[in-house]
Amino acid sequence: MSQSKGAILIVDDESVVVEIVSERLDEEGYLCAQAFSGEEALEKMESQSFDLVLTDYHMPGISGIDLIKKIKLLYPDTVVILMTAHNEVKIAVGAMKEGAYDYIAKPFDLDDLSISIKRALGHRKLELEAKEYEKKLEERVRERTAQLMEQIQKNRELLKGLVKTLVELRETRDPYSKGHNQKVLNLALKLGKLASLSGEELKNLELAASVYDVGKIAISDRLLNKPGRLTEEEFEEVKKYVIYSEKILSKIEPFVPVLHIIRAHRERPDGKGYPDKLLNEEIPKEAKIIGLVDSWVAMNSERPYRKALGEEVAKEELLRNKGTQFDSGLVSLFLEWLSQQKDG
């Protein structure tokens, strides 16, 4: 038995029309069903799937237009052709706006009807294929997105592990700095939020503040752990850690976008910082934040050559160097926040 070319529901209250059309379409290999009202058509569509509905406009009860609306609402993949009289072209055009694929004027030639049906079913096939392609594409996109998110998460874990390793390596060279980076990171993010940094800027700040001084692993232990103050020559040597940090991290792709922050965290608004003697507006906001909180944590920590200064002395230092070593606005924000913490 040959396969049907498509299931068609013919709807007309004139039984003669239904019989003639059914006979012709049966001969052409279509599987036809008949309905003599809009209500009967909807009943049949509840129990049987149709590729195409051929409906008359003038029918008792549900009109052809209302039937089209219901079909497109309930069975959007079913294509509809409207049959109407010669003087009802405006109605036919309105039906097409409601979702009918085509219309054919009565009395019509059966050959013309056959051509219209072939076009309609061809159009339906293309639409279904397009929907199927879109569905598969969406599935592929979802799968690929899930894979990428999984990879991103793995990369984040790898990056966290790398940062932890770099910090631990740095701290083994300088026991006095143990926990220093975490304190700087926490305060930097707090100050960054107070300074209204964007989401992207905060991400960059977090990454840079995690590893900004990793270059100290290239500085000799003798200088890092010297019990007395450094000579001018020794200090010049220690200052190179900024360049070393940049060089080390430049080989690791995730850190490349924040190298300019790491390089600039020792710059000063008055242009007396290092390594490039940048002026205030040339220094990235993230670098200014790291520079300030790094100094704050250092002043409140013991060093081989001195004891911790304490918060009050450290606050005085920030105020004394406001606008020269440290950004004025950031100093104000930071001190205000410290005051609120103390009051709270």
The percentage of residues in β strands lies in 5-15%
Second-tier CATH architecture of the largest domain:
Orthogonal Bundle
Distance between the termini: 87 Å
**Could you say which structural class the secondary elements and strand pairing correspond to?**
alpha/beta
Enter the CATH topology name of the largest domain: Hypothetical protein af1432
Instruction: Give the strand order, joined by hyphens, for the main sheet.
Output: 2-1-3-4-5
Report on the architecture of this protein.
This protein has a five-stranded parallel sheet with strand order 2-1-3-4-5, sandwiched between helices. The longest helix has 64 residues, at 110-173. Helices cover 59% and strands 8% of the residues. The protein starts with 6 loop residues before the first strand and ends with a helix. It has helices at residues 15-27, 38-47, 64-74, 89-97, 110-173, 180-194, 199-211, 221-224, 232-238, 241-249, 259-264, 285-299, 311-320, 328-343; strands spanning 7-11, 31-35, 52-56, 79-85, 102-106. It is α/β, with parallel strands linked by helices and 344 residues long. Helix 2 (38-47) runs parallel beside helix 3. Helix 3 (64-74) links the parallel strand 3 and strand 4 (79-85). It has two domains: 7-136, Response regulator (Rossmann fold, 3-Layer(aba) Sandwich); 174-343, Orthogonal Bundle (Hypothetical protein af1432). The mean pLDDT is 88.
